[in-house]
Please model this.
Amino acid sequence: MHYSVLVPHSRGGDGADNLSGVLAVNGGGFVGFDINETIHITMSVTYTGRIYSYDDDPISYEYITIPVDFEYRFPESPFYAFLGPELGFLLSAELDGEDISNYTPGTQFGFNIGVGAKIHKSIALDARYYKGFSSVNDHVDIYHSSLLFGLRYFY
Model:
């Protein structure tokens, strides 16, 4: 299981200056496998909410995301670093309660990079930065960009 708090922000052209990030939560499950003692691959399926304030009106995007992270585990250390692509499938998009999914692409593509530490044999904490490469609006160039703080529980 993986739970995170997102601190989103936007970057882009016209309209991006009026956006500010609001805390959101994501969660999901993951599987992973070792390539060798230091290299590990983790694949997740996660519900991800990205919420902003646009001129004091809430704008929210909900996705099912599939990140694939390539981890490097530091030898004889609880720490690890990771990076990898993320694909998101839009579930909903709303501006002040109105459906705006007609103006929002159905998929998103981005990249994650982060660090973490295994604090117990079944618990890890991590921090990651997500940078979106595809605009979230068909008419304005605005891209998701989030800082995530997570808790992982291993079975």
Observations:
- The CA atoms of residues 38 and 73 lie 5 Å apart.
- The chain is about 0% helix and 75% strand.
- The beta strands are 2-12, 19-22, 24-34, 39-54, 57-73, 79-95, 98-99, 107-120, 123-135, 142-153.
- The longest strand covers residues 57-73.
